[in-house]
Structures are given as C-alpha cells and as structure tokens.
Amino acid sequence: MAVLASTLRSSPDYEANRAAALDALEHVRELAEVVLAAGGQRSTTRHRERGKLLARERVDLLLDEDAPFLELSALGGAHDPSETPGVGVITGIGPVSGVECVVIANQPTVKGGTMNPTGVTKQLRALEIAAQNRLPVVSLVESGGADLPKQADIFVPAGRIFHDLTRLSAAGIPTVALVFGNATAGGAYVPGMSEYTVFVRNAARVFLGGPPLVKMAINEDVDEETLGGADMHARESGLADYLAADEHDAIRLGRQIVADLRWRKLGPGPSLAADEPLHDPEELLGCGPADLRRPVEARELLARVLDGSRLEEFKPLYGTTLVTGWGSICGFPVGVLANNGILFSAESRKGAHFIQLANARDTPLLFVQNITGFMVGSAYERGGIIKDGAKLINAVANSTVPHVTLMAGASYGAGNYGMSGKAYDPRFVFTWPSHRIAVMGGRELGGVMSIVRRGAAERSGTEYDEDADAAMRAEIEELIAAQSHAVYATGRVWDDGLIDPRDTRNVLGLALSAIHSAPVQGATHFAPFRM
What we know:
The structure is a single chain. 40% of the residues lie in helices and 17% in strands. The protein is α/β, with parallel strands linked by helices. The strands form 2 sheets. Strands 1, 2, 3, 4, 5, 6, 7 and 8 form an 8-stranded mixed beta sheet that branches. The mean pLDDT is 94.
C-alpha cells in the first residue's frame, strides 16, 4: 500500500492556517473552562459540603482506571448566551468493567441538573449513538427535572428520552441508572425506564411530584424521604433494585452490574497494523483552511491520521477533487472520501462507485469534508450535475456500513449531504475549529439576495437603494458568519464534538472502536440510480 508523502511545510498557507487554528482553539479553551467549572465555585462548594461527588468525579470513578473518555457534545449550548456551555449534562463513551458504554451524567451544580432544550437534544443524541452502535447506557442521575421557565421547548421532545431508553432495552441493549439525589417528575422516569437501578441511601429521592406539588394537587403533607426516599423504593415500591450505602458504593454496584452483563462486541474489530502516522500530528494545525475559498490538500490531513500514513487510492487520476481510497485508523479498516475541492460530475460518480465497493467489503467509511458544494453553471447543468450529484447522495443515504464524518473546513449546500452530513445518519460527526456550515457562504448569500432584490426593483420600475443594498449585504454576511461558525454549530449539537485537530486520530480511533460493538454490514441494494 502506498505511503503518503508530504510537502505541507512548504505550502504558503501553512503558517496562516496554523495561526488561525491556534487562535480559534484559544476561544474553545475558554469555553471548556466554563464547562469544567460546572456551575461555578459557589455551587460546587455547596455540593461538596453536602458530602456529594461532582458529576465528573462520578464519571471518573465509574470508568476503568486511566481509561479514555470520548466526551460528546461537550460545548452544547455554547451558541446561546442564555445557556451554560455543557448545558448541565455530561455525555460520552468510555469503558466500564471493560465494556464500552454510553454514560449520561446530570450535573446538579448547574441549575440543579434541570433539563433545558439543548440538554434534551444532547441526551437524545447520546441515546441515538447507543442504539446505532449497540452500546449499553449508564445514567448517573441527579436532576430537578425540566427547567420550568423553558418548559414549552422541553416537554414534548423530552418525552423521547424515555421512549429511547425502553427501545434500547427492547433491542437487547442494557440500561443502568445510578441515582445519587433528586430525580423529580420526568427525571423519575430515567430509573423507571432503566433495566437496573441503584439508589443511594438517604440521598436518592425519586418522585413524580415533590412535596409542594403533592400539597397543591391532593392537599397531602409529606416529607421527601417518605414520599420517594431510597429506602422506601427498595422496600415498598420496588423501584430500587440495589440500595447503596453511599455514592462510592453505588458506583461499585454499577460497575458490577455492567461486569455481570457478560457483554460481547459483534463487530470484527481492528485487523490491521495500528502503527503511528509517519508525519507529525502537530502539523494538523496547518491542514485546516484559514480561508475557506482556498482548498487544502486532503492527502496532507490523511497522512497524519491514517495508520503508517498508508492510503491505497481508488481512481487517483479520475475525479481528482475527491480523494478516495483504503486505509486504517488504530487498526480499523476504513474507506476514505476526502474533498480536494468542489464536487463535479466525475467526482460524484467516483464517490458513488466507491461507497458501493465499501458496502460490498463491509468496510466503514470516513468522510473528510472541506466542500463548498456541487459545481454550478450552464455547462455543468447540461452535463448532468444534478443527476450525478443525486447518485452520490443516493449512495450515501442507502449505505449501511458505519459512516464517520470529519468536518475540517467548509460544509456548504448539498455538498454537506453528498459527504454524509448529519442528516444522513453518520455514526459520529466531529469538527475542527476551521469548520463552517451553511447553505452557502455569507458573501454569496448576500450577493444572491442583492441580485433578487435588484431584479424585483427593475421589474416594478422603482429606483434601487444602493445604500440599503450595501447594508443588507453586510448584515447577511455578519449573520451567516455567526451562524455558520464551528462553535455555533457544536452548540446546537449539529455535531458530536469540536476537537483539537491534533487529537483527530485518537478521537476517530475511539469512535471506530465504539462502532464495532455492533455488526458492520454493507447494503445489499441501493435505490435506482438516475443514469
């Protein structure tokens, strides 16, 4: 298999790309510090004074010692000034007693662990990942239920959490709930819908309605422990399967429950040499485009991610703005589709063909996006760009091998769809700080709006206001710049995490390992291709 060479350091854009990446990562670091503060010093101190562990300490104790934890949607909510980045819930994948599990942990130090709209989205995405990849779920519960002032945006979608928990069980995927404190209203249904429950004595309190609601509803005066305490649920209601002496004991019991599952992966697992790339991963900082109008050589990125920097290219001389080929990451075989520029008809046909081959080989696919879209213009319309683009989208939509998508640069228009964007159910989507996502660039969108408005003015015989046009274009460019930014996208949970480019290989390796908990099987048929 060919080994990828590198001329990255000699690129005139390398230093500018690297500087832009470091600057963007500084902003990400500042947001990460807010996430790790978990509600701030006052909240965490008060929580500790109650003899409780912080949510991240619970996660650390649950996971195997020194094990990696692939945190998901860590900056959820970062797009909204009214929300705390991280949105009061930790989600991720890590080994518990040797079993890769999805872990969902409420953070009671952030608004009492209440759910907000983005927090619901984040939890639903974690449960979707568990279902797609056949991963057991462990919930670390301490939640005040819905953030009531935002209930209109929470109540309907939040019901899906309980739906998904029971569907996991029906699919034979175990669910475990460890309850450390209050689990009120909707929060009570997390242990209610889980297969195994552990309650902490004198701490866990689970009820559909707390004492104030009971008083208002039926005029009954009752204390929290009598209404929904751990001891009552262990002795009388039967909701608690195990009664833990304290938080450490609850985590011990949770780890034992997972160990006793005797869970086995069904995927083939790593089968190739997992040697490190020949080129320095530090240089990935220079692979993300500072200027999205300038394509970045995809092979330079792949040379710092693939095992041994090896790539067996498929059709290297045809459709050259789409790089396709076979390689591996951390020993897991992958087929790669990586943009080296805009998608033309040849690239679309090449990509569709390659996806069919990957399905025939039962090989997962890695999509690396830096795409401004499919080519436009009269010559390309006559040449069939729509039907050729449709072939690629058809292949992506009907492919059943797992997809992992890395957004390194632009992700505009239908190019996002043709390269397995979120709407096409990739198992995981990760982004770099250089990533931008929108229907088109801000300058182009502003220009289109200007042309449309100018034409309308001409047809109506009115004078066109050039000053208003300039202001409109500037406003649109500013809006698109803000809403297409990587932090905005990850805040909306349009991806599974904004990552440091230097961590790409490790992140993709962890994702591929999780994917192989389920069988890896290719499609046996596709929808008819328009010829």
